[in-house]
């Protein structure tokens, strides 16, 4: 049997900017069939930005593919901006985008932080969501953040963890998220750049089943690493601006929405426990664990399963 591959490269047929606040404009684009099934691609991070490759997971003849860059990242403006950048803002932006594009309801597709934001949007606007295809579940619970940024993943990738913490003075390592936040928001550009590069390299280096050596180089102000690290840390130090365990506490709101959950067995960034817990509580959800996979969407088993599930929508 021939393995299914990503769909061919396509260009957006429509794109633009949507002013969503006093200072923020978000970039959006549409590709594929304008009369096709509406599917919104929600990128990770927060702060990661969407990518052209994401649209290749969908048959362009069947789907109207909508992508956007969340506040402060990708092509959205201003870049790496933390002001007026909260989870409520992002959920409101998605709804403003839906209304702007004159879409009644849509399918959601998101991984990692994209799964978090998809779940929160669905809780806030359940009537607008037809289905969810989620990957690498992240519920932003305290133990999840501690596991990846403080202690846990450190024992699986000790060499990468050593590089990660090397930019933080030894006497400031008891709460690494807080210490990184101090340097990522520092007016000292050199300190900010080092912290951004270390944070980003740590996450990218641990995202695959088979370890990859990643070096983002020296981060610069307004570079990918700068926005990725600053916005992630900004959200995490503020507990994503929601009450603890918000998603699980409000799960009944979305129990009628068909949901597929794809999870790498050896996902170190977002451990399988979160996908397991979500599936146990969320009626009408199905959990598919890919044994030979880590966190990345590009892991072979995850890619194949995503393509298969999306085709069945």
UniProtKB/TrEMBL annotation:
One of its GO terms (molecular function) is aminopeptidase activity. One of its GO terms (biological process) is proteolysis. Keywords: Aminopeptidase, Cytoplasm, Hydrolase, Protease. The active site is at residues 112, 267, 295. Its main location: cytoplasm. Gene3D superfamilies: alpha/beta hydrolase. Belongs to the peptidase S33 family. This is Proline iminopeptidase. It comes from Prochlorococcus marinus (strain MIT 9515).
């Amino acid at each position: 049997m021939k393995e299914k591959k990503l769909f061919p490269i396509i260009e957006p047929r429509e794109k633009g900017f949507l002013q969503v606040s006093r200072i923020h404009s978000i970039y959006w684009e549409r590709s594929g069939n304008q009369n096709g099934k509406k599917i919104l691609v929600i990128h990770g991070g927060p702060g990661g930005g969407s990518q052209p490759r994401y649209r290749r997971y969908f048959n362009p003849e069947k789907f109207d593919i909508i992508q956007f860059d969340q506040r402060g990242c990708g092509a959205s403006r201003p870049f790496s901006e933390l002001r007026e950048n909260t989870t409520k803002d992002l959920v409101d932006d998605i709804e403003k985008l839906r209304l702007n594009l004159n879409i009644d309801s849509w399918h959601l597709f998101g991984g990692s932080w994209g799964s978090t934001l998809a779940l929160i949007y669905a809780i806030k606007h359940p009537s607008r969501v037809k289905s969810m295809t989620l990957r690498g579940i992240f519920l932003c619970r305290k133990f999840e953040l501690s596991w990846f940024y403080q202690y846990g993943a450190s024992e699986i990738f000790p060499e990468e963890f050593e590089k990660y913490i090397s930019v933080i003075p030894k006497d400031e390592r008891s709460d690494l998220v807080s210490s990184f936040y101090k340097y990522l928001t520092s007016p000292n550009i050199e300190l900010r750049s080092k912290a951004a590069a270390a944070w980003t390299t740590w996450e990218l280096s641990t995202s695959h089943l088979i370890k990859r050596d990643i070096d983002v180089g020296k981060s610069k102000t307004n570079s990918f690493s700068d926005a990725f690290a600053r916005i992630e840390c900004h959200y995490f130090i503020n507990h994503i601006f929601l009450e603890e365990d918000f998603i699980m506490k409000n799960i009944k709101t979305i129990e009628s929405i068909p949901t597929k959950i794809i999870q790498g067995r050896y996902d170190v960034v977002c451990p399988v426990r979160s996908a397991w817990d979500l599936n146990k509580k969320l009626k009408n959800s199905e959990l598919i664990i890919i044994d030979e996979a880590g966190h990345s969407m590009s892991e072979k088993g995850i890619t194949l399963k995503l393509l298969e599930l999306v085709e069945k929508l």
